[in-house]
Specification:
mitochondrion, 5 helices, disulfide bond, about 110 residues, mainly alpha, Cyt_c_biogenesis_Cmc1-like, COX assembly mitochondrial protein, about 70% helix
Length: about 110
């Protein structure tokens, strides 16, 4: 019996508490790319003193990431994306990260 509607899919504990938050972290880093870049360049420029010199950039990065982590709409968006990928995997047997790859011509 295959669930086709995203509301009908049962998520395991590990999916709710580990896999979807992992997806949220990855997407939040993309959405906060400017803050990540500012913090990274500050750390590279500051060397050992980065803990003191980059407080402003670190704070801005944390605020941006926490804004996304605590947003219930963002969680639902990531959850729906995860469910779509899960359903697609169940249909094809091909993980999302390998779907874009082409098969070798010798097959």
């Amino acid at each position: 019996m295959e669930a086709t509607n995203t509301e009908d899919v049962h998520l395991r504990h590990v999916e709710k508490d580990v896999l979807i938050p992992k997806m949220m972290r990855e997407k939040a880093k993309e959405l906060c790319a400017d803050k990540v870049e500012a913090f990274t360049s500050c750390c590279k420029d500051s060397g050992i003193l980065m803990a003191f010199k980059c407080r402003k950039e670190n704070s801005a990065l944390k605020d941006c990431l926490m804004h996304h982590y605590q947003n219930p709409g963002f969680f639902e968006e990531c959850k729906q994306q995860y469910i779509q990928e899960k359903l697609e995997y169940e249909k094809t047997g091909i993980p999302a990260k390998h779907r874009g790859q082409k098969l070798p011509a010798s097959m």
